[in-house]
Amino acid sequence: MVLSFVQDVISGKANMAIGSLPLTLLLAAIPHWHTIYIAESKKVQGGWANENPRAWVARLNSKAASGKKLTETEEYILRGQSAQQNGFEWFPVWAAAVILGTLAKLPKEQMDRYTVIHIAARIIYYYLYLAMGKRGGSYLRTAIFQVSIFPAVAIFFQSARALAL
């Protein structure tokens, strides 16, 4: 299914921007799945508590908020969970941009270009979120986040112009 969709995108038979919507959700979930694996394999807090995962993450956050030193693994897990949360918070903005761009009939090549920028920036962003545990590296992550915002903002402005005509 995914392979045939990729082939359709390459051949121009599929809308890349709309196809990026499930991919955007999948990319957002990867840091979550990865950090579940880490929590389980290293038995952080006894392992991942899937019966109430938000409480499990809240306990780690509470430990950090109380001033207790987190292990590198605990910090990594929290960054992964934060990356996932950011992805799911950002998804509605990207989805709205894709829908508006499609309704406004923005050129396919333009929407494809914005989609590639969006997906590439999100992949880099998630990698940096996990990899950059120090403050200095976090600024690079923030810069990449700004790049990931650009396509949606551009689509909103261009759709506003196109739909005003």
Written description of the protein model:
- This protein has helices at 2-11, 16-41, 53-65, 72-103, 108-131, 135-164.
- It is an all-alpha fold.
- The protein has a single domain, classed as Four Helix Bundle (Hemerythrin (Met), subunit A) (Up-down Bundle), CATH 1.20.120.
- It starts with a helix and ends with a helix.
- The mean pLDDT is 92.
Quick summary:
The protein is mainly alpha-helical.
Pattern of helices and strands: HHHHHH
Beta-strand percent range: under 5%
**What is the total domain count?**
1
Give the overall average pLDDT.
92
Give the tally of β-strands. 0
What about the largest sheet? Answer: none
CATH topology: Four Helix Bundle (Hemerythrin (Met), subunit A)
Give the CATH class: Mainly Alpha
- Structural class call reads mainly alpha
What sort of overall outline do the alpha carbons produce when their principal axes are compared? elongated
Oligomer: single chain
**In percent, how helical is the residue content?**
over 70%
Gyration radius from CA atoms, angstroms: 19 Å
CATH architecture title = Up-down Bundle
DSSP summary: helix tally: 6
Low-confidence stretches: none
Terminal CA distance:
38 Å
InterPro entries: MAPEG-like_dom_sf, Membr-assoc_MAPEG
Organism: Meira miltonrushii
Keywords: Membrane, Transmembrane, Transmembrane helix
Pfam families: MAPEG (PF01124)
